[in-house]
Structure formats: C-alpha cells, structure tokens
C-alpha cells in the first residue's frame, strides 16, 4: 500500500484528525456472504476489483466496496436470489451493473468490466482461491489487471492504486497479451511504459 504523502506524523491525517474506520473485515464478510449465495444458487461469477487482488496476495487496500463479475443474462435471477436472503438490491442509472448492500457495505455486481461484457470465457478462466477462508472464483491475474487498465481514461487514471497490484502479480500476468489488447490506448500504454521504467516488467523484445 502506498503511503499518503499528505498524512501527518504517526500516520494521522493533516491537522491531527482521526483516520477513517477500518472496514476491511466488514468488506470481507460482505464478500463471503454474497459469494456463498451465488455459489449455492449455481450462478457463474468471479470476484473482481481490490478484493480479487487481495485473494491473489496483494496487501489489502479496500476503498469502499467489493465487486463481482456476473453474466448480464443472470442479473434478474441474481437479484431475486439476493433479495430472498434479505439483501437490499437496487438498479442504478448505469446499465452495466446492479448494486447490493451486505454487512453495511456496498456490493457491485457487474456485467461489463470497463465496457467489455462479462463472458462465459472470462468466468471460465477464473481461479478458485480462498478469500478469508472461503473459496470462490476470482478473476485471473491477467484478466484482473486487464480490467483495471481498460478502466483508465482522461477522467479516471489512478496509477498509484494499480501499481502495487502490478508489482505483486507481475510474474503471473501475460504482459504481451495486455500490450496487444491496449495498443493505441494512451492511458494503458502510459502505465505499461511506467512499469518498464520502474523495472517492474521488461520492455517488448526489439526495443531498448
């Protein structure tokens, strides 16, 4: 986890204010709850986002929610399953996800990862990993980082949040595939160049 350069002495925010409450365990409990329901009902899914990175060994750095990739055609059945379990579900204005709430935490159930539809092939590539002792499908390292790169834009380009994930998972990622998929996209290409300059990854063959 990168340090906040604006933090004051002893890690307190500037001005001596209190740090926000640690929501890590609550987010993990919400993740396990929803994953258990999806598994029990037989709905294909894969954990995505920062909790997926944690499952792959990246130190916990949860911001505000947990993400699941699901098939668009399963949205209604997933909604009904969660509602039967007493979980509040709502449909936001965006047409690429539904939102739920468990253990006081937000759950995003996503049918498109950065404008790329969730497919059976994507979910089939998921790895079964333990998340706080509960095993569940998790996006593969290459698919996980690919979804984060595809989300970069002129309005959302937080390299600092993705850099620790790339560093930790670099040996498990197909970098050549990600280069091909992001060819011509300025922000992902800039991030890949940054990784080269930081010696996280090697430059493409034939370049210096």
TrEMBL record:
Residues 1-22 are annotated as: Disordered. Residues 1-12 have a biased composition (Low complexity). This is Nucleotidyltransferase family protein.
């Amino acid at each position: 986890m990168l340090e906040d350069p604006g933090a004051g002495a002893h890690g307190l925010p500037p001005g001596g204010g209190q740090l926000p409450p640690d929501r890590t365990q609550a987010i993990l409990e919400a993740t396990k709850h929803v994953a258990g329901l999806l598994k029990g009902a037989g709905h294909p899914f894969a954990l995505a986002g920062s909790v997926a990175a944690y499952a792959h060994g990246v130190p916990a750095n949860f911001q505000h929610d947990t993400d699941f990739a699901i098939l668009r055609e399963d949205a209604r059945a997933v909604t009904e399953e969660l509602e039967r379990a007493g979980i509040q579900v709502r449909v936001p204005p965006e047409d690429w996800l539904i939102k739920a709430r468990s253990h006081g935490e937000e759950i995003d159930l996503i049918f498109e990862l950065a404008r790329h539809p969730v497919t059976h092939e994507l979910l089939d590539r998921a790895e079964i990993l333990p998340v706080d002792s509960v095993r569940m499908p998790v996006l593969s390292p290459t698919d996980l980082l690919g979804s984060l790169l595809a989300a970069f834009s002129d309005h959302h380009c937080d390299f600092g949040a993705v850099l620790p994930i790339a560093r930790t998972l670099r040996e498990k990622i197909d970098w050549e595939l990600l280069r091909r998929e992001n060819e011509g996209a300025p922000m992902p290409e800039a991030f890949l160049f940054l990784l080269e300059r930081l010696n996280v990854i090697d430059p493409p063959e034939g370049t210096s």
